[in-house]
Design brief:
- By secondary structure, the chain is mainly alpha-helical.
- The protein has a domain of 57 residues: 434 Repressor (Amino-terminal Domain) (Orthogonal Bundle), CATH 1.10.260.
- Helix content is 45%, strand content 9%.
- The chain has a 3-stranded antiparallel sheet with strand order 1-2-3.
- Helix 2 packs across helix 3.
- The radius of gyration is 15 Å and the shape is globular.
Length: 85
Amino acid sequence: MWYGWGVILGERPFGETLAQLRISSGLTMAQAAERMGTTPSLWGRLEKGTVPNPKYELMMRALKALDAVIEIKVKPRAASWHFEQ
């Protein structure tokens, strides 16, 4: 999901999810970066979360390098929030 202060996938930051996916794929950062067509330095910054608000295209390239997909779910911010009828 996209927020002004960062990107969250499920319950964790994008970088944590990216690192977990890469490790479970058995790839090094250098291998994942090569698949993405970028540098290991940028890949490492994505995993550490030091790329502020990464663009959607950049996130999709990183996930594609790991043969992963993203699902987006929309839900209200608070349980008490509802539509007027």
